[in-house]
Amino acid sequence: MMKKTFLPTRLTINSIKSMYKSGELTPEELIDIIIERSEMYADYNIWIFPPKKEIIKSYTDNLYNMDKNLPLWGIPFAVKDNIDVAKIPTTAACPAYEYIPESNAEVVERLIKAGAVPIGKTNLDQFATGLVGTRSLSRVTWYTHVKGHGIHIC
Known about the structure:
alpha+beta
């Protein structure tokens, strides 16, 4: 069972690395907290493909085969849903466009090789046109910093 870990309202790469080094936090615990928070704020429509432990587990398991001194070892990241992550649907917020890529986009591959952990795919205006931000599979995205709740999960 996961130990309850207090996280500051704003995480940085350095703060996460420091907590890993001190033993205050493990990558798996951080992922559990991110999943919990993403579920808690589901109404904010942050995610098109939300964090799922069964998908993320292969990445966190692989961390222990990697050098812990990699610059992004254990650092979670999300991508917009117009960037390919292997075996996770890409829709660009358009159901007719959906496909499941067999490989990662180059940027995702580079992040993983640096030790980072992909956690999900975030909402965007359809095809990332940015016209008004209201056309999406997950509806309009709310501002993701909820005052007093310190939600910085994407």
